Amino acid sequence: MLIGLDFDNTMVCYDRLFHRLAIEYGYALPPAIATKSSVRDHLRAAGHEEVWTELQGIAYGPRIVEAETFPGVHDFLSRCRLVGVSVAIISHKTRRPYRGAGHDLHAAAHSFLESHGFYKRDETGLTADQVFFETTLPGKLTRIEKLPCSAFVDDLPELLAQPAFPNGVQRVLFDPSGQCMDEKRFVRVSSWHECGQCLLA
User: Fold this and answer.
1) Is the same domain home to 140 and 193?
2) Whole-angstrom Cα distance, residue 157 to residue 153?
3) pLDDT of the chain along its 201 residues, tens only?
4) CATH number at residue 105
């Protein structure tokens, strides 16, 4: 059995980092603006789409090590290792940002994984060889199919609902904020503990 995991917003939580970066850029945020999505919506509503795009390049690039992991993801990986389930990270991630300095976003993501202890193989069972950053969405779907994954965990319902999503792969939506509606095509979980109950029971 091989479980595929998305990276951004599935394993990595950017809420506090984007809030911090927006303030550093001089934007006074209302108290209710505390998540990545609310920062995005606030900047877009104010006509600052280009600022939002530039902040993404910074957050996913040189400042990514300041992001946090979602609670329980290390425990999930440890449990996979203990029960003999293989894991691969498969992410749709461009090599360079769309705006701003040309940081290597793939290298930055590997730095995050290293600095946050994901490459401690005796604990997580994970190595850099099991991490795939695909520059296109079709490339991500092809990787899920070719590995092949038995299940895939992602935060984007639109990814799991893709017509080209590989048949026979169990689809698990990671939805910690509970914003997505139930969908017959995939299982919705709100935490990594719940994800373990779903896939490793």
Assistant:
1) yes
2) 10
3) 999 999 999 999 999 999 999 999 898 888 889 899 999 999 999 899 999 999 999 999 999 999 999 999 999 999 999 999 999 999 999 998 767 677 899 999 999 999 999 999 999 999 999 999 999 999 999 999 999 999 999 999 999 999 999 999 999 999 998 887 777 889 999 999 999 999 997
4) 3.40.50.1000
The number of distinct structural domains making up the chain is 2
With beta carbons less than 8 A apart as the criterion, state whether 62 and 108 touch. yes
Is the torsion defined by CA of 8, 10, 15, 20 positive or negative?
negative
- The domain in which residue 40 lies consists of 15-65
Residue 71 corresponds to which tokens in the numbers above?
């609670």
Q: Based on the fold, state whether residues 111 and 183 are members of the same structural domain.
A: yes
Tokens of 23: 């303030």
Q: Who contacts 16 (Cβ-Cβ below 8 Å, separation ≥6)?
A: 67, 68
Integer Cα distance of 136 and 142 in angstroms? 10
- Write out the E strands in 65-127: 68-69, 86-92
Contact criterion met (CB below 8 Å) for 6 and 90:
yes
Distance of CA 67 to the CA centre of its chain: 11
H and E: helices and strands count for the chain: 9, 8
Q: Which residue has the tokens 């600052």?
A: 48
Distance CA 54, CA 61 (A): 11
